[in-house]
């Protein structure tokens, strides 16, 4: 990047930068520094609530997924905290109802329940109202954060109506149930 | 680059009295209680803040107050829109009504082509209640080509070159549409920060890791300088910031607690725009490193009492 430097030095700097970036991510994220489980990964798609359990709500487009450093491509600087705390993979989906209302669902699988607890603390903090979803949950004006096992989950709507918040809770509980049976 | 010329200095000096008076008024009352004069009858403001319930209407009015879209877009022009809209959470991306208003004015003005310089998230335009009514207009919008070119930045202090979307160099008019919001690293995100949307991940990684310090936000001085340096590559013709509803925490992605200025702010200068808008997050311009550094590059005026600010309600 630094064109003040001779080309050879810039190449070296560029290579060092790549190594540093990988090293940095690796040092934040045990996904690279710990041995991966040998069993095949269960698709996170299985955690999404079924449309048959969501009266009038359907998936709006294909869910997006990310693993490791790929999270930066999806949520940009928002990925920093997740990667720091030990991020494994994520799935993000949007549901739309018959009236055109939308609810976003982001499911983050962390490397351990401790990682999930830590990122939950950062995302939800002591804000919002405590609610019963998963192991710990808080609902704000238009969004819900909860954690269960190694998962941290965020649901968000686009208004503060009671009905929207009820759907956030309902969807959240469905996801929590599915996490319980996730291998 | 925005050089301060003698003419612009005199113009700003002439406006200083009014600007100073306005600057002492609390921000929100500024956006509520100002007179609504015709721009033709008075000197054009440096910055306009329009408060209203409908961002679409506020945007149309803001453009009008800066001299109308014809001051920026001529028949046959190719327009590039840099819209901060990669995130789906409310208050994390520009309200699509603001983009639709700009799009409508550009088409009315006879623009030949209007292109996103950074693609929004999937289904972005459709999230506006007006998307049905303005569907044809939305379909006319072109998406980014995905090609990037290397650009030298001779005046850059930390960033000497960058890879930037080639679409930027193919448009006649460049419009920067940002959202005023919280940002975990640089505390405030607006027009200056929005320029990172022009660059691929590899360039933006340098902003974060270029000094070889570990951590995405480990060297904020370098990051702020890189953002200021990147802004040297091309001056936007028009800058608009969405301060209607925005996240005040968990930025840039959200969700988080929302702030609501119900205001659309427009200016031809991004430093002044950011200097004004950061106040919606309780910050002063000098608190925001990239604003200070961009000002040091003479990219624009960050001292609000030197600007002619017009605030009104619709």
Question: What report would you give on this structure?
Answer:
The complex is a heterodimer of chains A (183) and B (314). In chain A, 38% of the residues lie in helices and 25% in strands. Chain A is an alpha+beta fold and 183 residues long. In chain A, strands 1, 2, 3, 4, 5, 6, 7 and 8 form an 8-stranded antiparallel β-sheet that branches. With 314 residues, chain B is α/β, with parallel strands linked by helices. In chain B, α3 crosses α4 and α8 crosses α10. The N terminus of chain B is likely disordered. Classes of the chains: A alpha+beta (183), B alpha/beta (314). Chains A and B meet through α1, α3 and α4 of A and α7 of B.
Give the structure's gist in a few sentences.
Chain A is α+β, with helices and mostly antiparallel strands and 183 residues long.
As a whole number of angstroms, the C-alpha radius of gyration of chain A is: 19 Å
Structurally, how many domains make up the residues of chain B? Answer: 1
- Content-based structural category of chain A: alpha+beta
CATH class of chain B: Alpha Beta
| Low-confidence segments of chain B | 1-39
Strand proportion of chain B: 15-25%
Helix fraction bin of chain A: 25-40%
Tell me the structural class of chain B. Answer: alpha/beta
Tally of helical runs of chain B: 10
* Sheet with most strands: strand arrangement of chain B: 3-2-6-9-12-1-13
Number of helices of chain A: 6
Biggest sheet overview of chain A: 8 strands, antiparallel
Q: Report helical residue fraction of chain B.
A: 25-40%
- Mean pLDDT across the residues of chain B is 88
Q: How many structural units, i.e. domains of chain A?
A: 2
Mean pLDDT of chain A: 83
Low-confidence region ranges of chain A: 1-6, 25-40
End-to-end distance of chain A: 45 Å
Amino-to-carboxy terminus distance of chain B: 33 Å
The counted number of beta strands of chain A is 8
Q: Using the CA coordinates, give the radius of gyration of chain B.
A: 18 Å
